[in-house]
Amino acid sequence: MLPPLMKPPPEKLLSFEVSLKELEKTVTELEKGDIPLDEQLKAFEKGVALSRDCLTRLEEVERRVEQLMKNSDAGLISVPFNAETPRS
Known about the structure:
This protein has helices at about 15-30, 35-70. With about 90 residues, the chain is mostly helical.
């Protein structure tokens, strides 16, 4: 039986923060390298799924922010999100 860390999370039931925390735990376990190869593969698969889930959630938030910032009668403008742009 796999330790609780290795069980894949239910799709879309975890919040972004919980998914990210689980991803960090999974990476830490993989970096230790003290688990059998088959469990490492399962942990890697879990990490990929968590990573994709986090990315999807971030992209959804980005789209929502851009929609809120769209040019409208209220005078808002659409500014694409760019993580490289420093904040003022």
